[in-house]
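Handout, section B. The chain below has 484 residues.
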Amino acid sequence: MSDPTHLTTPAAPTTRNPDGSTSLDGRLAPSEDGNYAERTLLAEKGHGKPDAFDVYGDDASAQIKYRTMVWWKAAALMLAETVSLGILSIPSVFQSLGMVAGCILVIGLGAIATATGYLIGLFKLRYPHVHNMADAGMILAGPVGREVLGAAQVIFMVFLCGSHVLTGMIAFDTITAGASCSVLWAGVSAIICFVLTLPRTLNGISYLSVASFISIVSAVMITMIGVGVTGHKGGVTVRADLSFGSAFLAVTDIVFAYAGHVAFFTFITEMERPQDFAKALYFLQAADTTLYLVVGIVVYAYAGSSTVSPALGNTGTVLRKVAYGIALPTIMIAGVINGHVCAKLIYVRIFRREDGITSRHMTTHSWTGWLTWTGISLSIWVLAFVIAEVIPFFNDLLGVISSLFASWFTYGISGIFWFHLTPASERWTTTRQRLKTLFWSAIILMGAFIMVAGLYASINSIVEGYRDGSYSGPFTCANQALTT
């Protein structure tokens, strides 16, 4: 019996190459044990290197080795990237939607995110040269698809970095009680994240991600203990009077909480065994869904109608400062992971050649390589700083991000991947295949609906916020600390 934690490659038509091997659409073909044969289209042209079409080339002589992560390190990265900010908005989701609806949506959207994440793993095994969403777009729709999905991924991840800078600013203002200009704290957050983004491999950052996970778990534990000691502030209610806009804004927060899929291709690319990705995925989804449920239920049960977002603001003044102090590592490190993946997309785009041969600057400590990497990373964090200052509101920022990008990267695009991987002649052959076809069709429609409805809810909320004067102006020194 095969190990269910290993990804297996879906069947696909194969062609016989001149050297006797088989290939999938001119790319790598799977061997009988599930591993891809070390052959490429370049081998047909006389190039004998087995990894010639791999993003990072042949590791044997490389000064910088990328494919070094075991599955648990990938799981740590995924957990740090996904949980850090997502968990902070979950209690306010329960406050907006009610306990029952909150639990159903966290479990339901988490289960669907598991299925879509698994499909991303299958797509990566089918096309081993895919390093990011831009590469996937090239397969789906040629150069236009590459540019559209590549730009979308970069914009999404820059906004994610901006969200981390914003949260870092709130954390520093809360800890110091607004002792300095909030613009200064946003700058400090961006500088810290920039410095930590400079290592060029994910393997080193994976150790930081363990500290990140410990940090956020400790912070939310302190918050839950704090609200428990304070006692019940309000009753738990079943909500039936919500407007569509406010209700769906809460839904986008849950979508954001599962929005790590955008980086999955890059994580898999730097794993020693991409087939082990499913282990990392299952660990991630079990852990984050459990954490979201526990934190959402406990904080909302005690804080009631006074629940605020980010979640760490639901305790008293002293515990709030302690919680934010302990959460600083996860706020920074999770931002670093997003910044690294964004920078890696641009870096690979610059130094990967059209014929599949990688530039030496990709895997050596050359001046050109390091200056390019540093320049890309600096640009990302400067943009993130600007975003954090121009859009100084937490929940609505998450709503805009989730609606535009997470709706597709986490959900809708996996449905498109499935239709690409499954020939039209096989989609309606059996009851099982018909159910799969209907399911993945629904996932595509779901992504489209979340985008449209979420944008409406988020934009409406932003307009109302500015109309009511509840938002501060851009680049303001006003204290952004949570004081409620």
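Note. Residues 11-52 have pLDDT under 50 and may be disordered. Compare this with the example in section A.
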